[in-house]
Amino acid sequence: MAINLRGRNFLTLMDFTQKEIRYMLDLAHDLKSKKRLGIRNESLKGKNIVLLFEKSSTRTRCAFEVAALDEGAHVTFLDSNSSQMNKKESLEDTAKVLGRFYDGIEYRGYEQSVVENLAKHAGVPVWNGLTDVDHPTQILADMMTIEEHISKPLKDIKIAFVGDTRNNMAYAWMYGCAKMGMNFVGFGPKELHPDIDKEEGLLEACKKSGATIEFCSEASEIKNADVIYTDVWAGMGEEDKLKERVELLAPYTVTMDMLKEIGTEDCIFMHCLPAFHDFETGAAKKAKDEMGLDIREVTDGVFRSKHSVVFDEAENRMHTIKSVMVATL
Ligand code: CP
Ligand code: NVA
């Protein structure tokens, strides 16, 4: 049966079948080739989309804006200070109003229930641009990047997610792996291993697709990972947890030695970005100078090495977000 995602929300990959995810990935590859060839589709001509950001962003915001403009849509950006949402107007009323003006709504913020509520009341597709527990557009970009760099089907890929194995990126990857039959190994301190039995539908999805999800704390327990993935140790809104996280996660800094021990010879290094790989950012410098903390989750050597595909990954945010909008609008 032909895949038709028109009118669908994009809140988590758990809401999609493997074939539907395959469809969005194929569309993204196609849209990327077309952009390279200078072919304009204008498949969103006449559409209006709104971007709601309660947390900051470079890639996600710009990806939505460029993707929409490439396809002929018009964009409005609202941050948490510039709308009435959650101040003088409830989420439900905001969703109902925006649904009258716009053809699609992107939301980035805290609880997943907010994006779910928007979707319940808006009457137009709502896209999740990151919450505390998920980041599904990032996973599409990551899968696309893996397909560009490793000539094996996704189901044969082993990904080692290093660090905080229960943050939004770790969960987003578990959902993605479960759907696409991939092999996920969460590599980090036991204290941060999640209880995945409590995750509704996750183990059933793994059973159906042949995916595996495991956790370990020792590098010697992982061999031949195709992808070494990491993320910041304290995400947006978790900055007060920095000290305790550094204490737990310092042994899990991604180094060249770690890559050699747990990865294949030509493994790729991935990171959703922004990354702490040196002390050139205000946050890394401040943590070092004021608290004596080294918050780098990856060394500069790995970040800049031939294994690193982080900027291809960043570019693919745009092509995959375009695919999600084109497919659902
Ligand atoms: N990876 C990602 O979501 O980046 P931004 O926070 O810059 O959007
Ligand atoms: N875990 C990070 C991801 C940023 C894209 C955060 O939530 O801040």
UniProtKB/TrEMBL annotation:
Boundaries of every Aspartate/ornithine carbamoyltransferase carbamoyl-P binding domain copy: 8-148
InterPro entries reported for this sequence: Asp/Orn_carbamoyltranf_P-bd, Asp/Orn_carbamoylTrfase, Asp/Orn_carbamoylTrfase_sf, Asp_carbamoyltransf_Asp/Orn-bd, Orn/put_carbamltrans, OTCase_ArgI
Family: Belongs to the aspartate/ornithine carbamoyltransferase superfamily. OTCase family.
Predominant location: cytoplasm
Signal sequence region: none
Ranges where the Aspartate/ornithine carbamoyltransferase Asp/Orn-binding domain occurs: 155-327
Chain's gene name: argF_1
Entry binding sites for L-ornithine: 168, 231
PROSITE patterns: CARBAMOYLTRANSFERASE
Source lineage: Bacteria, Bacillati, Bacillota, Clostridia, Eubacteriales
HAMAP family: OTCase
Protein name (record): Ornithine carbamoyltransferase
Keywords of this entry: Cytoplasm, Transferase
Function: Reversibly catalyzes the transfer of the carbamoyl group from carbamoyl phosphate (CP) to the N(epsilon) atom of ornithine (ORN) to produce L-citrulline.
